Amino acid sequence: MKNKPIIMLLFLFCLTQTGFATAADKPENQPELKIIESTYAFQSITEGIDIVHDFTIKNTGSAQLDVLKVKPG
Question: Coil, helix or strand for 67?
Answer without folding.
Answer: coil
